[in-house]
Write a structure and sequence with these properties.
five-stranded mixed sheet, 113 residues, alpha+beta
Length: 113
């Protein structure tokens, strides 16, 4: 099954966040077709929860084509998150960053198990 483009997935996720009462925005645009997507959840207390794409090894053979994510870190310092993105940019500059502001830390993602 074909997977949604990154651009379409990000737009849909922003709408979902707004629908749930959270603020969401794109802070970095990557490749519209297949750029990796990172989600920063700002808990509005000075900390960030960060989620990134789950490794391919975490997908089942009968996967539905949905994007799966994994936690990268919780309660992180915003400067540490920025440094992570600077390192990521050196390896692959085509990634997306989606920000969600939510005091409860809701991310609305499908997590790999």
């Amino acid at each position: 099954m074909a997977r949604l483009t990154s651009e379409f997935w990000v737009a849909a996720h922003i709408r979902r966040g707004f629908g749930e009462g959270a603020f969401a925005t794109v802070v970095r645009k990557g490749s519209p077709e297949a750029g990796a997507i990172f989600v920063r959840v700002d808990r509005l207390d000075g900390t960030i929860d960060l989620y990134g794409p789950a490794p391919q090894s975490m997908f089942d053979e009968d996967a539905t084509g949905e994007r799966l994510f994994e936690p990268i870190g919780e309660g992180l310092n915003p400067l540490d998150v920025q440094e992570k993105f600077e390192r990521e940019e050196r390896m692959d500059p085509d990634f997306w960053v989606l920000d969600i502001e939510d005091r409860e830390g809701r991310h609305f993602l499908d997590l790999a198990e």
